[in-house]
Amino acid sequence: MKKVAFKTLGCRLNLYETDAIAAEFSKQKYQVVDFNSNADVFVINTCTVTNQSDQKSRRVINQTHKLNKDALTIVTGCMATHYKEKLNANDKVDYVVDNEHKTSVLSVVDAHFNGETVNPDQFEKDVFNYAPAKETFHTRSFIKIQDGCDNFCTFCIVPKVRGRAISRPASAIFDNIKQVVAFGYKEIVLTGVNLGRYKFENYDFEKLVEAILEIPGDFRVRISSIEPDGYSESFFRLFQNPKLTPHMHICLQSGSEDILLKMRRMYTAKEFEEIATKLKTDYPQFNLTTDIIVGFPGETEEDFNKTAELAKKIGFGHIHTFKYSVRKGTRAERMPEQIAEKTKSERSEIIRKLADETKYNYRKSFIGKTQQVLVEKINKNGFATGYGEHYIPVVIKAEGLTKNAFYEVQITGIEAGEEPVLSGNLTKEKD
After folding, report:
1. 336-364 pLDDT per residue, tens
2. How large is the average pLDDT for residues 160-166?
3. What is residue 16's DSSP assignment?
4. Helix, coil or strand: residue 157
């Protein structure tokens, strides 16, 4: 039995695709092992959204060569699409499989071990042909509903490496969810490149989510990263359904109207603030998290201050902070007034400190309240850890609990640290 190891970098869409590919390898009698093991096959699902992403991907490629220089190394994902020729010339990489052919990774490996001469491009292109995975690397099951993007933000390479927006047939999504719920998954995460632009026949994003919530079963639904456009205000009524978790990661990027225009974002800072206000008014404990880019070309001190002020005013539950990274082939690459790296780092640190403060204050507000926690792990002390419906990590001060089960937890405190974690006592197992 040959051993295969997987490494995933980047977004939840990559996580979904890795899970599905790994499940197919398991069905074909490959042994899936830890990535630091001496595997026969290494599959690296890469990201290329920033320079840092590229560097991480290169480090992982070099790591596999050190673990077993005779192993078969497959590089797939967005970096494989963006730097296909360079990676094909890398003697540490055996096969480069772009995003359009990612579903063929198992076929490429099988053909290789059968002694066949194989070119990944010879296989059929299909971005949705992933079988539901019974066993994954996660407690929750990711569900891919669309791929690609038509927004063409000036800083973003995603349309080039993921292609134009395409939506998965609604019936296939419903079948996928029914299958993973039957497998025993208690949480599904809807994922894609631009979720709000989902459109297939009579289904837009709102109608799709509404139909998903009607699927029978004891599971909850979480929405992955989403843009603040493409869906109407009426969408938010769906959070009245207890199956839909009160958390959204909506990408702000900047609080400056001028910078948003330069980025070619499809909304204004004022509109974003209105969305945040609507959610917080209707659902006071709602967890709104976001992405912010600092140091975009032409970003003045005043522009940056507007971003910091808006972030503080909204009080995000978490902020992913990115220093603007030049991506070749984007319009932002050619913009004047590129910001010095030192300034980017200074601004990034300011947002990070602000993010730590708003995150701690938000999580502290849950003391005395209850959370429905889905147990994911048992820690070294024997206590269960998992996430509540608001997507906040919780340690349950009780032993003997089981993974992939819901428990109602009374939050009693917050354990401050690099990542503030809620702690609480078990009240009862969910009915």
Report:
1. 999 999 999 999 999 999 999 999 999 99
2. 92
3. H
4. coil
pLDDT digits (tens, 9 = 90+) for 293-336: 999 999 999 999 999 999 999 999 999 999 999 998 899 999 99
Return d(Cα 391, Cα 408) in angstroms, integer: 14
Residues 261-280 have pLDDT tens digits of 999 999 999 999 999 999 99
Residues 235/267, Cβ–Cβ less than 8 Å: no
Question: d(Cα 286, Cα 244) in Å, to the nearest integer?
Answer: 12
| Whole-structure pTM value | 0.90
Is 33 in contact with 48 (CB distance < 8 Å)?
Answer: no
The sign one gets for the Cα dihedral 342, 50, 150, 315 is negative
Both tokens assigned to 162:
């993921």
Cβ 421 vs Cβ 386: under 8 Å = no
CA distance 127 to 109: 19
Residues 6 or more apart from 70 whose CB is under 8 A from it? none
Spatial separation of the C-alpha atoms in residues 58 and 51, rounded to whole Å: 11
Q: End-to-end distance of the chain based on CA atoms, in angstroms?
A: 42
Helix (H, G, I), strand (E, B) or coil at 122: helix
